[in-house]
Amino acid sequence: MRKEGGAVTKEQKKATRQALRRYGKGSVCAAWAQVIGAVLAWYDRNDPVCAQLLRLRYLQGLPEEKVIARLYVGRTTYYTKELEALSTVAVCAADAGLLPGGQMSGVVAPGGA
User: Fold this and answer.
1) CB proximity list for 106: less than 8 A, separation 6 or greater
2) Which stretches of the chain are DSSP H helices?
3) Contact at 8 Å (CB) between 44 and 5?
4) What is d(CA 32, CA 7) in angstroms, rounded to the nearest whole number?
5) pLDDT digits (tens, 9 = 90+) for 18-73
6) What's the pTM value of the predicted model, to 2 decimals?
């Protein structure tokens, strides 16, 4: 899993957050599902805090305060881990051609809202 890459733009982070939320609802396209699943599996093995943060905040939709409490981390650690995890998903999505030019591409599954 490649975690390094160029700077992730605000638009790419927004598209990544939206894709993660749709993944949690089961309405993301197959390519995004593959990227998100691979990142979660990698984080499960290498950084469980990032994996849980992604699941709690974006897949389950819990507010930041509840995620921080469940992870037993401080706010600074939360924001650091969140940025790391979002950036990793975004870099992998860009590698898969899902974030060209900062634009969301194919986030919604066929027939999805």
Assistant:
1) 29, 31, 32, 98
2) 10-25, 30-46, 48-53, 64-71, 75-95
3) no
4) 20
5) 999 998 888 888 889 999 999 999 999 999 999 999 999 999 999 999 999 999 99
6) 0.80
Crossing angle of the two packed helices 10-25 and 75-95, in degrees rounded to 10: 90
> For residue 43, how many other CB atoms are within 10 A of its CB?
23
Residue type, 67: V
pLDDT one-digit tens code per residue, 59-96: 999 999 999 999 999 999 999 999 999 999 999 998 88
Could you identify the residue written with the tokens 């401080």?
Answer: 74
Torsion of CA 26, 10, 80, 24, to 10 degrees: -10
